[in-house]
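Protocol step 4 of 5: obtain the predicted structure for the target chain.
Materials: sequence only (see below). No template structures provided, no constraints applied. The aim of this step is simply to have a reference model before the mutagenesis design in step 5. Sequence pasted as it appears in the construct record:
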Amino acid sequence: MAEAEVVRPVSESLKLILERYHRALDAVVSGDSAPMKELLSMRDDLTLANPLGPPVRGRSQVEETMDHAISHFRDGEPTRFERISEVIGIDLAYIVELERTRVKIAGSDELSPVALRVTTIFRLEDGAWKIIHRHADPITAPRSIQSIVQEPGLPAVETFVFVKTALITHRILGSAGAGIVRRPGTAVRVQVTSETLLRVKSGGRR
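Step 4 output (structure tokens):
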């Protein structure tokens, strides 16, 4: 006979940390990392995997990586959340959400839409729920299998490219930037190789 599924209610303390977490994300898109740092675990197994680089471990590396990413943001709108899933245990819990907002990036005065697929893991530590892992990436819609292929010898990086001319051409950014048109002074996030980054820096003269 199969065992009945046990659904644990969300404790008041976990509800509180989730509310604070969402408020902290609103602060993040305004360039303020302090509220988020208050929610992070102090233990050595704290990890962060954000869209701008490889995963990092440990409080100091997580804070450094977080500060670097948040330094690009300002004047963001309140984040909208779509809860996909949640699992709650005695001392561990996780949520999967889609986060959507608009934020000014880098030196741009234009609000740019940002959408992230996020998994966050919480652990009960000394009576308080703390974040022990956050993974965020921009995959919120179906992609082709070719999108995971990495060209040999040219590691792919996702970066913000500041637009100085009205058109970023296919010649500079390759297929990732084909057809992207932005006004001067805006930023575009694209996935490019180290070779195409060199072409961007040299204005396409390679």
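Step 4 remarks: The chain is about 20% helix and 35% strand. Residues 12-28 form the longest helix (17 residues).
Proceed to step 5.
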